[in-house]
Amino acid sequence: MSTTILAAETHKAAAFEIFGIRLWGSAEEEDADVVDPLDYAVTFEVVGDDDDLTKALENASTLKGEEERPVSGSLGLLAKARNDRERLIAALFSKARYDGVVDITIAGKRLDDLQPDAVFDGPQPIPVTVTIQPGSMFTLGDVVLKGDAANIRGANFGLIAGGNANSDAILKAEAGIVRALKEEGRPLAKVVGRTIVADHATTTLDVTLDVAAGPIAGYGETTVEGTETVDRDFTVYMTGLERGRQYSPKEIDDARNRLLALEVFSSVSINEALALDPAGEIPIDVRVSERKMRYFGAGATFSNTEGAGIEGYWGHRNLFGRAEKLRIGGSISRIGDTTELGDLNYNAGIMFEKPGVIGPASKFFANLKAVSEHPDAYDRFSIGGNVGLSYELTKEQTVSGSVAVDYSDIEDALNPDGKRYLLVSLPLQYVYDNRDDKLNPTRGFRALAYAEPTYDALNGNMFVKLKGEGSAYYGLGADNRFVLAGRVAMGSILGASVEDVPADRRFYAGGGGSVRGYAYQGIGPHTDGKPTGGLSYAETSIEMRYAYNDKIGIVPFIDAGTVSTRQFPDFSTVKVGAGIGVRYLTPFGPLRVDVAVPLNPGPGDPSYGIYAGVGQAF
C-alpha cells in the first residue's frame, strides 16, 4: 500500500490549520485589519421545533457564524445585521417560507428603529437578538410559461401545481428550461420576465416565466484572458470550440473541464458573449488564473503488516509553455519491516506528459523507472519505461495504449536461483467513469478493462494479462448520509505457465488496497512459506460509508479474495476479511484509517491489520 499523506508546494506563508488545529499563524493576525473592534453576543431563536430549519437558518447567519470575531465599530455591526436579515429571508425563501418574519435587535432596540449613525458604547459584548417566525410552508399554485417556453411542460422541470415552491427549486427549474433551449444550439436563451405572487390566504406561490430562446448560432472567435506562462493559442486550441460549429452548452462544460484537467489553471470560466457577432456567431470569452507551475512534496505511508514508507518528488506543470508535465520522484518503503538496508524497497522514476498531441482530447505520456523491491513474494531489480497515448472518447470514457520495455532480474520461490527477463508489452486500457466525485463518490459507476500482450525476448515466452474491475456507488437519503459502495475485480494470465511468468506480473491479493486484514500479497498459493502469486485472481469489497457529520465518516466493510495458479479463479479458497474504518474529510480527499481482521485466517496470517492513507479504499 502506498499513499501520500503529506504534500507541500512553494507558496507564501499564511495561517494553516489541519484537523481544526492551527499549525502556524493566529486568529489575532486575521483580525488585525479590523478598525475599532467591537465584540457582540448573539441570542438566536427560531419559533417552532423544526431542528432542520433552525440549523439551516443558523448556517445562513453570519452574525451567528462569526460571533467570535469582532466587527469594525458600530457601523460594522449595523451593516452586518442588515445583511444578515437579507440572508435569513433568502434562507426562509429557500425553504418555501414566504410569510416568515425576521426581527433583529441590537442593545435592545429593533434594527428598523436604529439611526444609520447609531453608536453602541455600552459594555461589550453588545447584545444582539435574532428572532425568526418561519411562517407557513408554501406550495406551487398556478404555473405559466410564456414566450419561447410556451410549449415546454413545466412539470418536466418540477414546476407543477402543489409541488415544491422553494426558491432554489424555482431557480433550478429556470436554469433547466434555459439549458434545454441552449441545447438546441441557442446561446442567447434567457428568462426575460419573472412574476412571483405569494397568496398568503392559500399558502400557494404562483409563478409566471417569460423566456426568449434567441437564434441558433455557431461558435465565433474564442478569446483568452489571464494566461501568463501558458501559451494563449494553445489554450484556445484545448477548448476544442471550433469556429462555425453549432453551439452546445455541453461542449462548453467539457471545454472548461478539459482546461482544468491540464492542472495549470486554478480557475477557469467560459462565457458566451451577450450578442452575436456580425457573422451571426457567438463569441466565447475564456478567463483563467494560472497556478504555480513548480511544486515539490513529500509523503509517508504506514501499515502494521507492510511497514512504513517515505517518498519525495519534484514537478513542473508547464515545462515548455503548453501544459507539459515533468515529475521526478523516488521512494523508500518497508521501513521497520526489515532491519537490512538492502532489503528495503527503492523506487525512482521520471514521468513526462504532453496534452493535445492529436486533438484536445488526447495526451502523450512517457516514463522511465528503476525499482529494487523485496516483498515477501520475490526480490526484484528492474529498469523499464513506456511511451503511449490516451484519448478521451467522451467525458466518461477514456482509452489508452502504450509500448513498454522492461528488463528485470527476479528471484522467487519458483525460480530460487534467479531469472532474467526482457519484456516487450503493449498495455491497452479502457475506462468508463461517471462518478459524481472521483475522491469521495456518492453515486455512479467505474469500470476498467485491461489487456497486456507480452513477449519475453530473453526466454522466448509469450503471454497475455487480462484484468477487469468495476465499482458502484449508491447514496441513500436526500443528503447521501449513507453511501453503499461495492467493488469487484477479476484477472487471468493466458499463454504461459506460472513459472514462466515473471513474479511481479503474476496476480496477488491481500493488504490495504486489496483484502484488508491479511498481509500484502499474503493470499494465494505459497511455496516454502513464500507467496508465489498466480495466473488468476478475484476480489470483491462492500462498504457502508456513513457520514457522522461534515468532517467525520465511519465505514464498516467486508473484503474477499482468492488467487489461483490456474488460468481461472478457484473460488474454493476464498479468504475473507472484515473491519471498520474512520474517514476525515479534507479538500484533497478523505484521510483513511482502517482496522481489519481475517475471518478465516491460515497459518502465518496476521491477527489484524491497520492501514492508513488518503482517499477512499476504492
Automatic annotation (TrEMBL):
Ranges where the Bacterial surface antigen (D15) domain occurs: 318-618
Matches recorded under InterPro entries: Bac_surfAg_D15, D15-like
Keywords linked to the UniProt accession: Membrane, Transmembrane, Transmembrane beta strand
Subcellular location: Membrane
Keyword Magnesium: no
Principal subcellular localisation of the protein: membrane
Entries under Pfam families matching the protein: Omp85
Family annotation (PANTHER family): BACTERIAL SURFACE ANTIGEN (D15) DOMAIN-CONTAINING PROTEIN, SORTING AND ASSEMBLY MACHINERY SAMM50 PROTEIN FAMILY MEMBER
Name of the protein described by the UniProt record: Translocation and assembly module TamA
Native organism taxonomy: Bacteria, Pseudomonadati, Pseudomonadota, Alphaproteobacteria, Hyphomicrobiales
